Amino acid sequence: MSLRVGLIGYGTAGAFFHAPLITATPGMTLRSVVTSREVPDGVRRLDRPDQLWEDHDLVVIASPNRTHVPLATEAVLAGVPVVVDKPFAPSVAEARELTSLASSRDVPITIFQNRRWDGDFLTVKDLIRSGALGRVHRFESHFDRWRPTPKQTWKELPGREEAGGVLFDLGAHLIDQALQLFGPVRSVYAEVNKQRDGVQVDDDFFLALTHESG
Protein backbone atom coordinates (compact mmCIF):
# COMPACT_ATOMS: atom_id res chain seq x y z
CA MET A 1 0.00 0.00 0.00
CA SER A 2 1.36 3.41 -0.98
CA LEU A 3 1.70 6.13 1.65
CA ARG A 4 -0.55 9.09 0.90
CA VAL A 5 1.64 12.17 1.30
CA GLY A 6 0.47 15.74 1.73
CA LEU A 7 2.84 18.63 1.05
CA ILE A 8 2.44 22.08 2.62
CA GLY A 9 4.13 24.75 0.53
CA TYR A 10 5.11 24.72 -3.13
CA GLY A 11 7.89 27.27 -3.39
CA THR A 12 11.52 26.36 -4.05
CA ALA A 13 11.69 23.68 -1.34
CA GLY A 14 8.31 22.14 -2.09
CA ALA A 15 8.48 22.19 -5.89
CA PHE A 16 12.16 21.40 -6.47
CA PHE A 17 13.11 19.21 -3.50
CA HIS A 18 10.17 17.58 -1.76
CA ALA A 19 7.69 16.93 -4.56
CA PRO A 20 10.24 15.25 -6.90
CA LEU A 21 11.67 13.13 -4.07
CA ILE A 22 8.23 12.01 -2.90
CA THR A 23 7.19 11.18 -6.46
CA ALA A 24 10.39 9.21 -7.11
CA THR A 25 10.21 7.19 -3.89
CA PRO A 26 8.59 3.74 -4.20
CA GLY A 27 5.74 3.33 -1.76
CA MET A 28 4.87 7.03 -1.67
CA THR A 29 2.23 9.00 -3.57
CA LEU A 30 2.02 12.78 -3.59
CA ARG A 31 -1.71 13.09 -3.03
CA SER A 32 -2.17 16.78 -2.21
CA VAL A 33 -0.34 20.10 -2.02
CA VAL A 34 -1.44 23.08 0.06
CA THR A 35 -0.58 26.09 -2.08
CA SER A 36 -1.99 28.90 -4.19
CA ARG A 37 0.22 27.86 -7.11
CA GLU A 38 -0.35 25.38 -9.91
CA VAL A 39 0.46 21.78 -9.00
CA PRO A 40 1.32 18.74 -11.16
CA ASP A 41 -1.42 16.84 -12.94
CA GLY A 42 -3.00 14.19 -10.77
CA VAL A 43 -2.23 16.05 -7.53
CA ARG A 44 -4.94 17.82 -5.56
CA ARG A 45 -4.43 21.49 -4.74
CA LEU A 46 -5.80 22.40 -1.32
CA ASP A 47 -6.34 25.76 0.34
CA ARG A 48 -5.78 24.88 4.01
CA PRO A 49 -3.36 22.61 5.90
CA ASP A 50 -6.15 21.17 8.05
CA GLN A 51 -7.59 19.56 4.93
CA LEU A 52 -4.67 17.11 5.09
CA TRP A 53 -5.30 15.72 8.55
CA GLU A 54 -8.08 13.28 7.66
CA ASP A 55 -6.89 11.27 4.67
CA HIS A 56 -3.08 11.42 4.54
CA ASP A 57 -0.51 9.07 6.04
CA LEU A 58 2.32 11.62 6.10
CA VAL A 59 2.62 15.39 5.90
CA VAL A 60 5.71 17.29 4.73
CA ILE A 61 6.05 20.92 5.81
CA ALA A 62 7.92 23.10 3.30
CA SER A 63 6.28 26.43 4.04
CA PRO A 64 8.00 29.58 5.42
CA ASN A 65 10.10 29.01 8.53
CA ARG A 66 7.77 30.83 10.91
CA THR A 67 5.02 28.29 10.16
CA HIS A 68 7.05 25.14 10.84
CA VAL A 69 6.29 24.76 14.55
CA PRO A 70 2.58 25.75 14.41
CA LEU A 71 1.85 23.46 11.46
CA ALA A 72 3.87 20.56 12.85
CA THR A 73 2.02 20.95 16.15
CA GLU A 74 -1.33 20.77 14.34
CA ALA A 75 -0.22 17.65 12.48
CA VAL A 76 0.95 15.94 15.67
CA LEU A 77 -2.28 16.79 17.48
CA ALA A 78 -4.17 15.30 14.53
CA GLY A 79 -2.06 12.15 14.81
CA VAL A 80 -0.39 12.54 11.41
CA PRO A 81 3.35 11.74 11.05
CA VAL A 82 5.26 14.78 9.86
CA VAL A 83 8.52 15.73 8.16
CA VAL A 84 9.61 19.32 8.81
CA ASP A 85 11.99 21.13 6.49
CA LYS A 86 14.91 22.87 8.14
CA PRO A 87 15.08 24.86 10.29
CA PHE A 88 12.98 22.66 12.55
CA ALA A 89 12.15 25.54 14.91
CA PRO A 90 13.27 29.12 15.68
CA SER A 91 14.55 28.08 19.12
CA VAL A 92 15.76 25.07 21.07
CA ALA A 93 12.88 25.47 23.53
CA GLU A 94 10.28 25.25 20.76
CA ALA A 95 12.03 22.26 19.19
CA ARG A 96 12.09 20.40 22.50
CA GLU A 97 8.45 21.21 23.19
CA LEU A 98 7.42 19.95 19.76
CA THR A 99 9.41 16.71 19.95
CA SER A 100 8.12 16.11 23.48
CA LEU A 101 4.54 16.52 22.27
CA ALA A 102 5.12 14.11 19.39
CA SER A 103 6.71 11.57 21.72
CA SER A 104 3.86 11.80 24.23
CA ARG A 105 1.35 11.10 21.46
CA ASP A 106 3.50 8.47 19.74
CA VAL A 107 3.46 10.42 16.46
CA PRO A 108 6.62 10.15 14.32
CA ILE A 109 8.29 13.48 13.57
CA THR A 110 11.61 14.23 11.91
CA ILE A 111 13.53 16.94 10.09
CA PHE A 112 14.40 17.04 6.40
CA GLN A 113 18.18 17.30 6.01
CA ASN A 114 18.85 16.49 2.37
CA ARG A 115 22.54 17.38 2.47
CA ARG A 116 23.26 14.31 4.57
CA TRP A 117 23.17 12.52 1.22
CA ASP A 118 25.50 14.81 -0.79
CA GLY A 119 28.19 12.79 -2.53
CA ASP A 120 31.10 14.81 -1.15
CA PHE A 121 29.76 14.56 2.41
CA LEU A 122 29.19 10.81 2.15
CA THR A 123 32.75 10.38 0.87
CA VAL A 124 34.18 12.30 3.84
CA LYS A 125 31.96 10.32 6.20
CA ASP A 126 33.22 7.01 4.80
CA LEU A 127 36.86 8.14 5.01
CA ILE A 128 36.51 9.18 8.65
CA ARG A 129 34.68 6.01 9.67
CA SER A 130 37.19 3.78 7.89
CA GLY A 131 40.11 5.42 9.69
CA ALA A 132 41.77 6.28 6.39
CA LEU A 133 42.38 9.85 7.60
CA GLY A 134 43.64 8.88 11.03
CA ARG A 135 42.48 11.02 13.93
CA VAL A 136 40.71 14.15 12.66
CA HIS A 137 41.67 17.22 14.71
CA ARG A 138 39.91 19.91 12.68
CA PHE A 139 37.11 19.91 10.12
CA GLU A 140 36.24 23.01 8.07
CA SER A 141 33.20 23.39 5.85
CA HIS A 142 31.54 26.41 4.27
CA PHE A 143 29.16 27.73 1.64
CA ASP A 144 30.05 30.68 -0.59
CA ARG A 145 27.22 32.58 -2.24
CA TRP A 146 27.36 35.64 -4.48
CA ARG A 147 24.26 37.72 -3.83
CA PRO A 148 25.27 41.39 -3.48
CA THR A 149 21.67 42.62 -3.41
CA PRO A 150 19.32 41.18 -0.75
CA LYS A 151 16.31 39.33 -2.12
CA GLN A 152 12.92 40.51 -0.94
CA THR A 153 11.71 37.17 0.39
CA TRP A 154 10.52 35.82 3.74
CA LYS A 155 14.04 34.49 4.35
CA GLU A 156 15.19 38.12 4.62
CA LEU A 157 12.56 39.18 7.17
CA PRO A 158 13.78 40.26 10.63
CA GLY A 159 12.39 38.93 13.88
CA ARG A 160 13.21 35.82 15.91
CA GLU A 161 9.91 34.18 14.97
CA GLU A 162 10.76 34.43 11.25
CA ALA A 163 13.91 32.28 11.65
CA GLY A 164 15.41 34.14 8.71
CA GLY A 165 19.01 34.78 7.76
CA VAL A 166 21.80 32.66 6.36
CA LEU A 167 22.58 30.90 9.66
CA PHE A 168 19.13 29.32 9.76
CA ASP A 169 19.18 28.76 5.99
CA LEU A 170 22.58 27.36 4.97
CA GLY A 171 24.09 27.13 8.44
CA ALA A 172 21.58 24.44 9.38
CA HIS A 173 23.21 22.15 6.80
CA LEU A 174 26.77 22.79 7.97
CA ILE A 175 25.91 22.25 11.63
CA ASP A 176 23.99 19.07 10.87
CA GLN A 177 26.86 17.64 8.84
CA ALA A 178 29.32 18.34 11.65
CA LEU A 179 27.02 16.61 14.13
CA GLN A 180 26.68 13.63 11.81
CA LEU A 181 30.46 13.31 11.54
CA PHE A 182 31.61 14.03 15.07
CA GLY A 183 28.63 13.76 17.39
CA PRO A 184 27.31 16.05 20.15
CA VAL A 185 28.85 19.46 20.76
CA ARG A 186 30.41 20.57 24.05
CA SER A 187 30.78 24.28 23.28
CA VAL A 188 30.12 26.82 20.52
CA TYR A 189 31.89 30.02 19.53
CA ALA A 190 29.91 32.17 17.10
CA GLU A 191 30.23 35.35 15.06
CA VAL A 192 27.02 36.37 13.26
CA ASN A 193 27.07 39.49 11.11
CA LYS A 194 25.24 41.67 8.59
CA GLN A 195 27.65 42.57 5.79
CA ARG A 196 25.56 43.89 2.88
CA ASP A 197 23.95 47.32 2.75
CA GLY A 198 20.25 47.26 3.50
CA VAL A 199 20.13 43.71 4.84
CA GLN A 200 17.85 43.10 7.84
CA VAL A 201 19.08 39.64 8.85
CA ASP A 202 22.45 37.93 9.17
CA ASP A 203 24.18 37.20 5.87
CA ASP A 204 27.53 36.06 7.25
CA PHE A 205 28.53 33.78 10.11
CA PHE A 206 31.44 31.86 11.58
CA LEU A 207 30.94 28.98 14.00
CA ALA A 208 33.56 26.99 15.87
CA LEU A 209 32.15 23.79 17.37
CA THR A 210 34.03 21.79 19.98
CA HIS A 211 32.68 18.25 20.03
CA GLU A 212 32.44 15.98 23.05
CA SER A 213 34.50 13.48 21.08
CA GLY A 214 37.37 15.96 21.07
UniProtKB/TrEMBL annotation:
InterPro entries attached to this UniProt entry: Gfo/Idh/MocA-like_OxRdtase_N, Gfo/Idh/MocA_oxidoreduct, GFO_IDH_MocA-like_dom, NAD(P)-bd_dom_sf
SUPFAM superfamilies (UniProt xref): Glyceraldehyde-3-phosphate dehydrogenase-like, C-terminal domain, NAD(P)-binding Rossmann-fold domains
KW Translocase (keyword) present: no
Keywords recorded for this protein, A-Z: Oxidoreductase
Gfo/Idh/MocA-like oxidoreductase N-terminal domain segment(s): 3-109
MF annotations from Gene Ontology: nucleotide binding; oxidoreductase activity
Family as reported in the entry's similarity comment: Belongs to the Gfo/Idh/MocA family.
Pfam families: GFO_IDH_MocA, GFO_IDH_MocA_C3
The name this protein goes by in its record: Oxidoreductase
Native source organism of the sequence: Kibdelosporangium aridum
Domain GFO/IDH/MocA-like oxidoreductase: 121-214
PANTHER family registered for this protein in UniProt: CONSERVED EXPRESSED OXIDOREDUCTASE (EUROFUNG), CONSERVED EXPRESSED OXIDOREDUCTASE (EUROFUNG)-RELATED
UniProt entry tagged with the keyword Protein biosynthesis: no
